[in-house]
């Protein structure tokens, strides 16, 4: 069974950048579609971006052009580079394999001046 641990969140001013990491332990990391998701206070968890073994990553319209998802198979780590951050990006960010229903602790991202 693979465990995922998110990190890299924090407080950043509008227009700033952060890079989130998602470290996987165990096997079965390679070849599986993965994604980043987020949940803002009082809202449902929403999909942010996905990355696949083949083809281009996909992004929610609200982050298209600002966020970039990538992964390093050798390090078993998924990343989310977030640029031009906006206050509405404030949320707890989670990584997961697509289709999985159990979630980790996530990492808090707060965009505020």
Write up what this structure looks like:
The protein has 113 residues and is an all-beta fold. The protein is 0% helix and 48% strand. Strands 2-10-9-4-5-6 form a 6-stranded mixed sheet, with no helix packed on it. Strands 1-3-8-7 form a 4-stranded antiparallel sheet, with no helix packed on it. A hairpin with a 6-residue loop joins β5 (46-51) and β6 (58-59). The model has no long low-confidence stretch (mean pLDDT 94).
Can you lay out the helices and strands and say which pair or pack?
Elements: E1 3-7, E2 10-12, E3 18-25, E4 34-39, E5 46-51, E6 58-59, E7 67-72, E8 77-82, E9 91-97, E10 107-111
Parallel strand pairs: 2-10
Antiparallel strand pairs: 1-3, 3-8, 4-5, 4-9, 5-6, 7-8, 9-10
Report Rg. 13 Å
Strand line-up across the major sheet: 2-10-9-4-5-6
- How would you sum up the major sheet? 6 strands, mixed
Query: What would you call the structural class?
Result: mainly beta
> Mean of residue pLDDT?
94
Query: Beta-strand level of the residues, as a percent range?
Result: over 45%
| Global morphology | globular
State the order of secondary-structure elements, H for helix, E for strand.
EEEEEEEEEE
The total beta strand count reads 10
Instruction: Give the low-pLDDT segments.
Output: none
Distance between the termini: 40 Å
Q: Total number of helical segments? A: 0
Helix content: under 10%
